[in-house]
Task: structure prediction
Amino acid sequence: MGVEHQLVYTEPLPELAADKERFVTHPILRHQDFSLYYRQWYDGYAIGNYRHESLLFDGDAVGARAEREFTPKHFSVAQSASEELLPALRGKRFVRAFNGYMAFSNDLYPIIGQTGIRGLWAALGVWVTHSGGVGKSIAELMTYGETEWDIREADINRFQPHDYTKAYMRARIDRQYQEVYDIIHPLQQLENPRNVRLAPFHARLVEQQGVFFSSAGWEVAQWYEANAPLLEEFGERIPQRQGWAAKYWSRIQGAEHLATREARQIFNLSTFTKIEVSGPGALSFLESVTANRIDRPIGTVVYTSLCNDHGGIMADLTISRLAEDRFWILTGGGVGPHDLAWIRQHAPKHSNVTIRDMSGQYTTVGLWGPRARDILQQVASEDVSNAAFPFYTVKPLQIECVPAPGAANLLCRRVGLGNLCTHRVRAAPLGSPLGSWPAARSGCRRGWCIRFAAAGEGISAVGRRHS
Result:
């Protein structure tokens, strides 16, 4: 999306007379408190101004020249601040002034890569500070298909579906422009838009006083105020923080971590991207792009990497074999669009391989800790002992009355240090703001995982740290 950005050029300044014939010899000067920058331009200055309201427009509005008429009312604060900082500017006129066009992405990073049209490449939203690296990287992509540097934060396929909506772009880019020169705490969360994507049990997490952050549009708790009593047990083992380090943080996070390590807790993992690869050619395709062997018995979970032609790692994920010709890939929500695009781009053309994004149909809950298996066994009809449910396997489970016939199905994967359960919700697309957890049906004695707290099992939802 486009943003108007003010730029003015001063008349010649006597103080810069020695540089009259030199294009640029001075470093760029920034006035951080007033969102201004100054660039020497021969014997004058070019002054860039961010200290005004965001003036947004659709990219299609760009004409032959990326300029609009200068709006003096938006420059009044900048002019006063500039004359105070640089007295030589007082009383000087501007020989050129305009509102230039800048292309902003939702996250302020460039957009680099091949578009949906094969052979058509893009390098958009490139700031001068990024320009050298972007030029190098796009040339490498077009020539070799890969880059020397890791450019995942600028990858053209990094955006979630909601990132493409005009409403979301306007809200994010409006804020990005206002905060270009602000000092932002690394844990400070965006304020708008929020509640874009919600787990089907989100209302339950709100009841537990979750302090949420946005992850790929999902509302995920950093911690739950309802877990404050854990500090009575673990408080002495959690250090204090002061000042800047204590912002957007709680000692409850440490208590939740320790409670997980020593007993059991439940995690909202709805953010995970779920990709299904199926068809007669699914196995051979996955074997060709992964570093590990995928041809294993049905019910096996394989932890592996997706690799490029030179063995470089493009993704880090797990693949579950659900049938002879059906596989599920589970990868992080933040990198999900990138991984899905990479898989599709490398799938054989005109083949018998079907690739589907299942993230809108399934939700994910993690049950972790030394007692995870004991708790799961109390509510599962199947045997989940180590012999029956070994490490890195996946199997369907019935959790008491869930699934009800024809209503849902449940897969449980044993990975890491606990059980990762994936529950299909047919009642509504995952991400819609459901008012209640759909597993809490009449006739159910306890419901499913997220209801363990109400079942007297001593388990509670805990927050997740984010990067």
